[in-house]
């Protein structure tokens, strides 16, 4: 579980150029992890579909396995949708973080102009400075809100992947009940287990990247 | 950054900005120009992003931000206009005059608020407070979409990279010994300007103008007889040459 309070504290301190650049680089990395997780989930979905076809051929002898493959396919589809959604969210936050960095840089420049006492008309750019400050604050609020959604969704996806792993283990138990198909069903169960573990690793990495922002 | 009056009458003033002593050595020195009229200002090739705060502070010595109504970019180079995203914040009411060819490229520098007035290849006139500025084609010198600004009242031609020279920091603003100065221009023009045809077409066009000051974006300004000296020198120079 990601420490939401800690993240919020970090987001509040995103007013410096350095932490912002770290934020959008980290968010791009999260996006990469989710992209790779999505690919794996697609693999799981394909394996589950193949398993379902095998179960149909095997008929009543593997009824338990068939129910499991249906469930895993549904989980894989749901995982893909969640991962794509989270990826989109992380890119949105990264975009906001980049915009904030540009505005922060602009703010620094306008502060320099305002501090130049030789500039007779320097006060005429005061409104620009105030507007930038306001935009930066609003952007930080927007980022915090979106990051909370992202954290929550990452927790959801992690929960689903845990369920998929447990069900894949059950699939191995079910395969043992059908000696005729056990070898094929074991391979399928192992493939699902391997892929869901890989998805779990990707999500773990995404969560630890958020912690490091 | 130094700020000088180049030419002045009752209605308008040409300013020259440059030779910033605080500029980092790794970026090329640039000259910026501005025409201040009674109620407006026309800012030319405002410079790179690294220069912005110094440049803007210097400009604000002479004009309030809300009176900077026109921004001009002779072409798309970063030393000319990579500060665009910040000017867009500073003077959202202004219009950017820049080659049509570079519109979708220049917007990569960030431009959300200002209007973009696309200069057609044949050039255009820009009226500003009773003054009429001519945006003169200078394509392929060096950029493929490139313009100069001519003011017939002050007899000033802002020539962008044409006439540019690579100078030591703190060099004078005006050419003092033309022959000596050619050594600082030759390599730049031969390497950066790709077309003798384009060069000669520009020279023919510019010879028809009455010019007292020829003002490049880098190096020194040509004044009086040195304007003709430059055009004669440039005419005989073969360009599009690399030292391979």
How many separate helices of chain A?
Answer: 5
**Count of β-strands of chain B:** 13
In N-to-C order, the SSE pattern of chain B is EEEEHEHHEHEEEEEHHEEH
Radius of gyration of chain A: 24 Å
Strand order, largest beta sheet of chain B = 1-2-3-4-5-6-7
Uncertain regions spanning at least 5 consecutive residues of chain B: none
* β-sheet strand percentage of chain B: 25-35%
Overall average pLDDT of chain B: 95
Number of helices of chain B: 7
String of helices and strands of chain A:
HHHHH
Please report the total strand number of chain A as a whole number.
0
Spatial shape of chain A: rod-shaped
Beta-strand content bin of chain A: under 5%
* Name of the CATH class of chain B: Alpha Beta
Q: Can you describe what's shown?
A:
The complex is a heterodimer of chains A (213) and B (244). Chain A has 213 residues and is mainly α. Chain A has helices at residues 4-12, 17-58, 63-114, 126-176, 182-212. Chain B contains seven helices and 13 strands. In chain B, helix 4 (103-106) links the parallel strand 6 and strand 7. The longest helix of chain B is centred in the last third of the chain and has 15 residues, at 178-192. Chain B starts with a strand and ends in an 8-residue tail after the last helix. Chains A and B meet through helix 3 and helix 4 of A and helix 1 and helix 3 of B.
Question: What is the topology?
Answer:
The complex is a heterodimer of chains A (about 210) and B (about 240).
Chain A: H1 4-12, H2 17-58, H3 63-114, H4 126-176, H5 182-212
Chain B: E1 2-8, E2 13-18, E3 32-36, E4 41-44, H1 52-59, E5 68-72, H2 78-81, H3 84-90, E6 95-99, H4 103-106, E7 115-119, E8 124-128, E9 131-137, E10 147-151, E11 156-160, H5 178-192, H6 196-207, E12 213-216, E13 222-223, H7 225-236
Parallel strand pairs in B: 4-5, 5-6, 6-7, 11-12
Antiparallel strand pairs in B: 1-2, 2-3, 3-4, 8-9, 9-10, 10-11, 12-13
Helix pairs in contact in B: 6-7
């Amino acid at each position: 579980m990601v420490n939401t309070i800690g993240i919020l504290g970090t987001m509040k301190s995103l007013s410096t150029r350095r932490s912002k650049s770290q934020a959008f680089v980290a968010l791009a990395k999260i996006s990469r992890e989710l992209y790779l997780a999505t690919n794996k989930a697609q693999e799981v979905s394909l394996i589950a579909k193949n398993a379902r076809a095998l179960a149909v051929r095997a008929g009543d002898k593997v009824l338990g396995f068939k129910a499991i493959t249906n469930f895993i396919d549904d989980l894989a589809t749901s995982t893909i949708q969640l991962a794509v959604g989270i990826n989109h969210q992380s890119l949105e936050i990264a975009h906001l973080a980049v915009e904030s960095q540009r505005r922060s840089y602009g703010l620094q420049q306008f502060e320099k102009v305002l501090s130049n006492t030789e500039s007779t008309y320097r006060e005429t750019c005061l409104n620009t400075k105030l507007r930038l400050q306001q935009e930066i604050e609003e952007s930080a609020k927007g980022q915090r809100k979106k990051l909370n959604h992202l954290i929550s969704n990452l927790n959801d996806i992690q929960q689903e992947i845990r369920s998929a792993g447990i069900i894949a283990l059950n699939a191995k138990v079910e395969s043992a009940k059908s000696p005729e198909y056990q070898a094929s069903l074991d391979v399928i169960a192992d493939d699902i287990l391997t892929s869901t573990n890989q998805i779990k690793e990707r999500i773990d990495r995404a969560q630890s990247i958020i912690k490091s922002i | 950054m130094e700020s000088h009056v180049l030419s002045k009458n009752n209605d308008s003033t040409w300013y020259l900005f440059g030779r910033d002593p605080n500029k980092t050595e790794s970026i090329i020195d640039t000259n910026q120009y501005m025409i201040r009229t009674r109620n407006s200002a026309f800012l030319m090739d405002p410079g790179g992003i690294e220069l912005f705060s110094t440049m803007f502070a210097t400009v604000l010595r002479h004009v309030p931000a809300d009176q900077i109504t026109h921004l001009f970019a002779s072409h798309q180079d970063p030393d000319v206009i990579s500060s665009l995203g910040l000017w867009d914040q500073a003077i959202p009411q202004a219009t950017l005059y820049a080659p049509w060819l570079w519109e979708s490229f220049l917007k990569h520098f960030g431009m959300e608020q200002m209007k973009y007035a696309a200069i057609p290849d044949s050039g255009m006139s820009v009226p500003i407070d009773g003054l009429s500025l001519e945006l003169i084609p200078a394509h392929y010198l060096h950029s493929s979409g490139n313009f100069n600004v001519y003011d017939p009242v002050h007899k000033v031609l802002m020539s962008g990279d044409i006439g540019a020279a690579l100078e030591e920091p703190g060099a004078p603003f005006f050419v003092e010994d033309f022959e000596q100065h050619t050594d600082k221009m030759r390599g730049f023009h031969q390497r950066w300007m790709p077309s003798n045809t384009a060069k000669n077409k520009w020279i023919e066009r510019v010879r028809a103008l009455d010019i007292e000051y020829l003002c490049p974006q880098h190096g020194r300004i040509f004044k009086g007889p040195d304007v003709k000296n430059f055009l004669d020198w440039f005419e005989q120079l073969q360009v599009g040459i690399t030292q391979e």
